[in-house]
Automatic annotation (TrEMBL):
Organism of provenance: Hibiscus sabdariffa
Lineage: Eukaryota, Viridiplantae, Streptophyta, Embryophyta, Tracheophyta
Keywords: Membrane, Transmembrane, Transmembrane helix, Transport
Protein name: Folate-biopterin transporter 3
Listed transmembrane segments: 49-71, 123-142, 148-169, 190-212, 218-236, 274-295, 307-326, 338-360, 404-423, 443-463
Family: Belongs to the major facilitator superfamily. Folate-biopterin transporter (TC 2.A.71) family.
Membrane topology designation: Multi-pass membrane protein
Cited CDD domains: MFS_FBT
Compositionally biased intervals (Basic and acidic residues): 11-22
Length: 502
């Protein structure tokens, strides 16, 4: 009996060893298995969460946010520098204003949760977001000598379209997080992978598009990602809300606001939110100062549009690598441990800009282009590793019934931190007299930024040291419930064109 048991126990080991030997002797089979692994992962998510959810994430995160934002970032920077002729500090402030719609994401969340249009809660908002983006991009691309104020308004409108679509898809993500808490990391990895791959494609093409068609021409091309948001709204299948009392909208807004406030007062909720704000606010963005130095400094590298785009594409590769690291090695580690190392390396990696600005890389025999690509890839990889646990943690802080609204609230807190970082960075550039032609004090701004990035490490006690696969909120907040008969959970999914036309 014991001999049979030993043979049974050792047989799988021999089998695994044989399989491993076959893979070593057959590289083609090993390569195919490696390629099949992400396909099996997507198949698992599609079976657990429905294929339509996976498709929706790819469209919104991959095409609209990843590819679209990848194109628009480079074109917007060149548009501000070459078309509007603004200073680096001004550009830093204006870029922050463009992201203002992301700060008011709770408003979009409340609208989608409590104000259905024609009986639907998600579909009309996707369509509205798409049309808003199409119109704003057409204005920017077709209008000659557009005033800075109107140009800024159009850019804000385009950003609002992306933000509204983001709120709608985030509601689906948080809803699935509550029903499948063990898949929270996988869902955020899917979002991150879609965004990173899309950004890689967008940044890779952005420099060539700006060179061939100019910044305004790229804005015209961005009509396509916005149009796909309209397609999402057309394909979306959701339950119809009947007999909705529009006269009670104010009451519903108040009830939803009270529910958010009650949740936000929970100790396990406000402490992580405070840390996330501090982490972003103390990041001190000086991106525009570095961009002007890359392109306009007399003693700088004088990068062309194609090179700038390729540098940003290297950042997208680093971001994608960060997602893969988190998915395969870090997603089961406590939030606090990951954030400690991510914050520490974020401060250290910021000094790579110092090496570039002081031209130390040339003394070491490293060309500007090569070093700038390494700098961008490393910083984006670390930033993504820090961002992933924030997303997973945020999705676990959302109570049932107001998932989309509360997740939007947490994301708005993050974006307030990013806005604070952008504006404070613009102030530092202004105080240090970093202009279109003066970059003597840019190295001081880099040192200040790197030191400020280390401060959030002292506030890590605000982050819960819990298993990331378990729920954080009390059980009573996670029970399925209705808020004013509208905030009810539903299985939102993408229907086929045939079903959509019925």
């Amino acid at each position: 009996m014991m001999e049979e048991q030993e043979e049974t126990e050792t047989e799988p080991l021999h089998q695994d060893s044989a399989d491993s030997h076959v893979r070593r002797n057959n590289p083609k089979k090993g390569f195919l298995e490696m390629m099949a692994r992400p396909i099996r992962w997507l198949k698992m998510l599609s079976e657990e969460l429905h294929w339509s959810f996976v498709l929706g994430v790819v469209i919104v995160y991959g095409i609209s946010q990843g590819f679209g934002v990848g194109l628009s970032r480079v074109s917007t920077q060149y548009y501000m520098k070459d078309e509007q002729k603004v200073q680096p500090s001004q550009a830093q402030i204006l870029i922050g204003v463009i992201h203002f719609p992301w700060i008011v994401k709770p408003l979009w969340g409340l609208l989608t949760d409590v104000v259905p249009i024609l009986g639907y809660r998600r579909r009309p908002y996707f369509i509205f977001a798409g049309f808003l983006g199409v119109i704003s991009m057409l204005v920017l691309s077709l209008h000659k000598n557009l005033h800075l104020g109107f140009a800024l308004l159009s850019l804000v409108a385009g950003s609002a379209g992306i933000a509204i679509a983001d709120v709608a898809i985030d509601a689906c993500v948080t809803q699935h997080t509550i029903s499948h808490p063990s898949l929270a990391g996988d869902m955020q990895s899917l979002c991150g992978l879609s965004s990173s791959v899309g950004a890689l494609l967008g940044f890779s093409l952005s420099g060539f598009f700006v060179h061939l068609a100019g910044a305004k021409g790229v804005f015209g091309f961005l009509v396509i990602p916005s149009s796909l948001l309209v397609l999402v709204g057309i394909l979306l299948r959701e339950s119809h809300v009947r007999n909705f009392a529009y006269g009670r909208v104010k009451e519903k807004f108040l009830d939803a606001s009270k529910a958010m406030w009650t949740t936000l007062k929970c100790r396990d909720v406000w402490r992580p939110c405070l840390y996330m704000y501090l982490s972003f606010a103390l990041g001190l963005h000086i991106h525009e100062g570095m961009f002007y130095w890359h392109t306009d400094a007399k003693d700088g590298p004088s990068f062309s549009q194609e090179i700038v785009g390729s540098i940003f594409s290297a950042g997208a590769v680093g971001s994608l690598f960060g997602v893969l690291l988190y998915q395969n090695f870090l997603k089961n580690h406590p939030f606090r441990d990951i954030l400690f190392w991510a914050q520490l390396w974020s401060g250290i990696s910021g000094l790579l800009d110092l090496i570039l600005v002081l031209r130390i890389n040339l003394k070491l025999g490293m060309p500007d282009y090569f070093f700038a690509m390494i700098d961008e890839a490393v910083s984006r990889m670390i930033g993504r590793i820090k961002w992933m646990p924030f997303l997973v943690l945020s999705s676990k802080l959302c109570p049932s019934g107001i998932e989309g609204t509360f997740f939007a609230l947490i994301m708005s807190i993050d974006h307030i931190g990013l806005l604070s970082s952008a504006w404070s960075g613009g102030l530092v550039l202004h105080v240090l007299n970093v202009t279109r032609t003066q970059f003597d004090n840019l190295w001081i701004a880099i040192i200040i930024r790197s030191l400020l990035r280390l401060i959030p490490i002292g506030f890590l006690f605000l982050i819960p040291r819990t298993d990331p696969n378990f729920s954080i909120l009390p059980p009573e907040m996670l029970r399925t419930k209705r808020v004013n008969e509208v905030l009810e959970p539903e299985n939102t999914e993408m229907a086929t064109l045939v079903l959509a036309s019925d």
